[in-house]
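> forwarded from #structure-qc
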């Protein structure tokens, strides 16, 4: 395999935005092209991750439209869909193209615009990624399944409601310093625990919002990176793992562990030749607060049932041994589903390059990991980047 590098990135603000889907994707993509100094180069491919632009925005054939809008025709265009992990899966396709030698320069864009439809419609569209036979026909939603998981985890490991609230409190504290985050306001344990119930025991502040936004990165081969003189400011992709689980949660082995995370992270660690203790900073898929806890345990950052100890003792804060979701996570950065995976990779890349937003920079990180879920606890992609 040829080595693969991230050499530039761009991102729009996440939130409830007036710009169209295409405009958002274009803004992020242009940002990545400018940042990577590749405007004069010929892109071989554009890979777009988007969960459901057809239903959220009434738009199909996204990669073709974008290639045209960006003026990078005749590069090949592909849209990738794996639910809310579509962005990371698009990145994985881009990685494979460069590592196989099929492409020298690939643009990866993640985008979603979820706020043009009413909340009920958005919820219906999101719920289609779950099992109809076992879940959605009974009214199941992602939040309802996350609530089941939270209840079971509380029962098994004695997690309390107020302890769980520490996860969104950290997310909002970090998000308050991230100028592109959907929510830039701090919150408190009391406010999280007492906000309106979405699916008991989860409240409004345990849930990521529905958001609009886009993020993009440019991937390149070693030869291109050297020609551009960008080796020192790039990040090498050293591990990628991707795994599914049984579609319906009731068919899985455990409620408090996502086997797709275990499989995907192990594959990524094997490829990178490192283990969880090597991670300095990570962006985990905290679509619901309980997932940050479970993800840490499945990846091996914390022992089973012990993630809360790390969070309670501030060990996952900026400055701790492993900084978890320093840019606010899905909870505060926002979660325009198809954009999230690319935004996570962008934030990890900026951390390694030393360009994270002010007050959110981890001290000289070497290794960054991103973890992106598609479906409820399913179709999970783990990506590991290293500073060269
Ligand atoms: N966290 C904190 N505040 C939130 C919020 C969230 N997740 N979602 C909305 N708010 C705020 C809004 O900014 C708004 O504040 P304002 O009145 O000051 O403007 C207020 O709460 C009400 O917003 P609204 O959009 O009416 O909330 P809602 O009740 O319709 O929706 C959720 C809230 C949590 C149900 C919705 O965001 C949701 O479904 N999230 C989960 C999305 C999901 O499943 N994603 C896929 C996961 S893989």
């Amino acid at each position: 395999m040829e080595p693969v590098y991230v050499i530039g990135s761009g991102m729009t603000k996440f939130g409830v935005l007036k710009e169209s889907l295409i405009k958002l994707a274009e803004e992020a993509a242009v940002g990545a092209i400018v940042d990577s100094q590749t405007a004069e180069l010929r892109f071989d491919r554009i890979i777009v991750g988007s969960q459901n632009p057809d239903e959220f925005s009434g738009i199909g054939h996204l990669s073709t439209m974008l290639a045209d809008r960006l003026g990078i025709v005749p590069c090949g265009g592909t849209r990738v869909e794996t639910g809310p992990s579509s962005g990371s899966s698009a990145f994985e396709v881009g990685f494979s193209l460069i590592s196989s030698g099929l492409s020298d320069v690939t643009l990866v864009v993640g985008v979603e615009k979820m706020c043009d439809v009413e909340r009920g419609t958005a919820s219906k569209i999101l719920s289609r990624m779950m099992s109809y036979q076992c879940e959605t026909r009974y009214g199941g939603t992602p939040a309802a399944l996350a609530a089941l998981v939270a209840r079971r985890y509380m029962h098994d490991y004695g997690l309390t409601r107020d302890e769980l609230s520490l996860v969104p409190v950290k997310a909002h504290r970090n998000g308050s310093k991230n100028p592109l985050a959907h929510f830039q306001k701090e919150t408190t344990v009391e406010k999280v625990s007492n906000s309106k119930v979405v699916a008991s025991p989860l409240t409004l502040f345990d849930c990521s919002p529905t958001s609009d936004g886009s993020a993009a990165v440019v991937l390149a081969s070693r030869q291109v990176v050297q020609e551009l003189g960008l080796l020192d400011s790039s990040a090498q992709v050293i591990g990628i793992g991707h795994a599914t689980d049984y579609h319906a949660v009731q068919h899985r082995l455990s409620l408090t562990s996502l086997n797709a995370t275990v499989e995907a992270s192990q594959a990524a660690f094997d490829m990178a030749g490192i283990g969880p203790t090597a991670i300095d900073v990570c962006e985990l898929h905290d679509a619901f607060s309980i997932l940050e806890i479970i993800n840490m345990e499945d990846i091996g950052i914390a022992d089973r049932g012990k993630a809360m100890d790390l969070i309670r003792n501030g060990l996952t804060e900026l400055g701790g041994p492993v900084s978890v979701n320093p840019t606010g996570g899905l909870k505060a950065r926002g979660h325009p589903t198809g954009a999230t995976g690319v935004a996570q990779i962008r934030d990890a890349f900026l951390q390694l390059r030393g360009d994270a937003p002010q007050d959110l920079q981890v001290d000289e990180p070497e290794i960054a990991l991103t973890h992106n879920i598609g479906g409820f606890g399913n179709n999970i992609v783990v990506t590991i980047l290293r500073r060269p």
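QC bot note: Residues 84, 119, 123, 126, 142-143, 183, 198, 204-205, 207-210, 287, 335 surround coenzyme A (CB under 6 Å). The chain has a mean pLDDT of 97.
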